[in-house]
Amino acid sequence: MTKTDNSYNAKSIKVLEGLEAVRMRPGMYIGSTSSRGLDHLIYEIVDNSVDEHLAGYCDNIRITLEADGSCTVEDNGRGIPVGMHEKGVSAERVVMTTLHAGGKFDNNAYKTSGGLHGVGSSVVNALSSSMTVTIRNGGFVYRDTYERGIPTQELENGLLPVIGKTRETGTTTNFTPDPEIFEKTRFREDEIKSHLHETAYLNPGLTIQYTDNRPESAEKVTFHEPEGISGFVKELDKNNEAVTDVIYFSGESENIKVEVAFQYINEFQEEVLGFCNGISNSEGGTHLTGFKTQFTQVINNYARELGILKDKDVNFTGTDVRNGMTAVVSIKHPDPRFEGQTKTKLDNQDAARATAKVTGDEVVRFFDRNIETLKAVIGCAEKAAKIRKSEEKAKTNLLTKQKFSFDSNGKLANCESRDPSRCEIFIVEGDSAGGSAKMARNRMFQAILPIRGKILNVEKASIDKILANAEIKTMINAFGCGFSEGYGNDFDITKLRYDKIVIMADADVDGAHIATLLLTLFYRFMPDLIYAGHVYVAMPPLYKVMPVKGEGGKTALAGRYLYDDAALEKYRRSSKCKFTLQRYKGLGEMDPQQLWETTLDPEHRMMRQVQIEDARMASEMTELLMGTDVLPRKNFIHQHAADAEIDA
Questions:
Q1: Are residues 481 and 412 in the same domain?
Q2: What burial letters (b/e) apply to 291-305, b meaning 16+ CB within 10 Å?
């Protein structure tokens, strides 16, 4: 190892004061600086208001997307405390400017909470170009203002000045996302409404009023769901044939409150959503593990008691038992531990025990009194088990007896390295682009897998047709980690041969369609590739501009690649000299050197990592856009036609 520098000393240790750390590493606190992170700012503030509801002091929250691009969240809770804190300033100022300061750390103030008042508020403050906090508390109205987390208002002897009187209580927070931090600063109305609707289902005594004052998407919606999570399950299953009614139970164990609602439908699918203290845990967690494990055990015990499973029969798998299940599992935990600030996965082991205990007690109590419903549930498991076994046999025939070489019948130009952490595989459509990519790549760590045309749409195809498709079999074999579907799971991500799987399609409509078909395949049958962050979409340029030599007596500047029409228009406005324009209709039009420097070179390329932020919405959108039902897709296209980017 070569020593390059010996300057690591006490001066190398940097201390970030106040909220500097949040602005320097925003992804650590809100997940990303994409639209997902932008919307998360709203959720952080709303979570604090929901916690006031959970504490019994708030029953109305108003969220307004303002015409100027800001967002206002107003509640009728107690209002952030404004009295003198031991630090010598108003408690509100401490909450809004200090990480890990807030009432949620005091179990006397909040028995359960999802947001951490002070963590979320201060993070939003740090990432906003401006914020105004108005507090109604103790008969008076107070206001504080900030810019990028820094207070802009003088205090009076350390306290906020009174700006009015009122009989109401609560907090109103208005903030404008900082364009220096976020890639885009326009909130996504569909995602926000979906999140707020979920919040209303999880809190049946709460009313949430949503207003969009932006001219292009103006609307008002009120969310109030007195049926709670039972209504949530009904909503999720509204377009499906029900096998059972919605079944609801609740209970408490280890000071953890558990409530579950589930229903079986006549579809080969499973949708189990988890929430802790009103926060969606999109990656699951221990509460879901406890529910699933205990429920599977209960159903297997009943199946043997009823003689449906004989002594020689193996138990139903968890996937068998949950075939056709739609469930919402919601717990209230006094001290939740999440993996990451964005709270996507619950990590408390006592949550697994409590959920399992309540599930074991209440499900048995219900099924003992409802034998016909029990038989219907076991019938779903039986059907899934039979199909699973037949599909496992089909897989064996298609993927074991018909083995391929590691080079996939010569299609795969593999890389030399066998270290998966270094390796990348690029899926390229067409012989021309594939040939150019093979010449352009770095053979040490980059593999090229050409495919022929558009692959099978797996959303519309049966499993036997999917497994018989030559292009899909080639990809399964190349990745090395197997294949999973609704009746079994032969997928093992530890066997993945490449750290990055990159979809490299042309920058046009056909390329976008190919990328969509591939993403549908990965999402439906290899979803862990996406959840683990291994799937990317390459961003080849659409144009190359070359200044004309000798223009104005100057030598020509180097050529420049532009990735979309917006970039070209910006270049036209800013360029002071004449230039020639080359448009790439396809990757095959690039020579190997151009393909390397624009799309393959890790030092200069641009790629998008594929992420799933809301599994329910992702599943619904995949079904809508790629499924067999034409009318909803047609309506969606008409509704969003103005948002489309038309290929010239």
A1: yes
A2: bbbbbbbbbbebbee
What is the DSSP pairing of strand 325-332 with strand 484-485? Answer: unpaired
Count of domains for the chain: 3
The verdict on 202 and 101 lying in the same domain is: yes
Same structural domain, 408 and 392: no
- Helix or strand (DSSP H, E) at 523: helix 509-525
Domain boundary among 176, 205, 223: 223
| 574 domain-assigned | no
Could you give the 3-state DSSP secondary structure of residue 530?
Answer: helix
pLDDT at 203: 95
Q: Is 450 left (phi over 0), alpha (psi -120 to 50) or beta?
A: beta
| E-assigned strand segments in 318-381 | 325-332
Long-range contacts of 611-614 (CB under 8 A, 24+ apart): 611/32, 611/36, 611/530, 611/533, 612/282, 612/523, 612/527, 612/530, 612/531, 613/31, 613/36, 613/191, 613/282, 614/191, 614/194, 614/195, 614/280, 614/282
Residue carrying structure tokens 């049946």: 204
Token pair of 56 as six digits = 């019994």
**590, 436 Cβ separation under 8 angstroms:** yes
What is the DSSP-derived secondary structure letter of residue 497?
A: S
Check which CATH number belongs to the domain holding 335 and give it: 3.30.230.10
Q: Tokens representing 317?
A: 């798998």
Do 214 and 302 belong to one domain? no
The pTM (predicted TM-score) of the whole model is 0.72
Q: Tell me which residue range forms the domain holding 125.
A: 20-223
Apex CA 15: angle with CA 14 and CA 16, to 5°?
Answer: 115
Examine the domain organization and report whether 297 and 420 are in the same domain: no
343 and 203 both lie in a single domain: no
Report the CATH number that the domain containing residue 438 is assigned in CATH.
3.40.50.670
Is 583 within the bounds of a domain?
no
pLDDT score, position 512: 81
Torsion sign (Cα): 352, 358, 360, 363: negative
Provide the token pair at 221. Answer: 């919606």
Give the whole-angstrom CA distance, residue 326 versus residue 354: 21
**In angstroms, what CA-CA distances link 366 with 23, 111, 358, 372, 381?**
51, 30, 12, 11, 18
DSSP assignment letter at 134 = E
Query: Would you say residue 561 lies in a domain?
Result: no
Rounding to the nearest 10 degrees, give the CA dihedral for residues 585, 588, 593, 596.
90
CA distance 13 to 318: 50
Does 164 share its domain with 287?
Answer: no
Closest CA to 198 of 264, 142, 273, 128: 273
635 CB contacts (<8 Å, ≥6 apart)?
A: none
Q: Which residues pair with 329 in a beta bridge?
A: 260, 274
Q: Where a domain ends, among 198, 223, 248?
A: 223
Asked if residue 267 and residue 127 are part of one domain, the reply reads no
Which pairing describes strands 424-429 and 446-451: parallel, antiparallel, or unpaired?
A: parallel
Mean pLDDT by 10 residues, the chain (648 residues): 44 53 84 88 94 92 98 96 91 87 49 52 94 96 96 92 95 97 93 94 96 95 97 93 96 96 91 90 90 97 94 92 95 84 79 96 97 96 86 60 44 91 92 87 94 80 76 89 64 91 84 86 87 91 81 53 84 84 81 89 90 65 66 65 52
Query: Annotated active-site positions, please?
Result: 429, 506, 508, 510
- CA gap 567, 148 in Å, rounded: 29
In a domain, 4, yes or no: no
CATH no. for residue 191?
3.30.565.10
Copy the structure tokens of residue 263: 């229903």
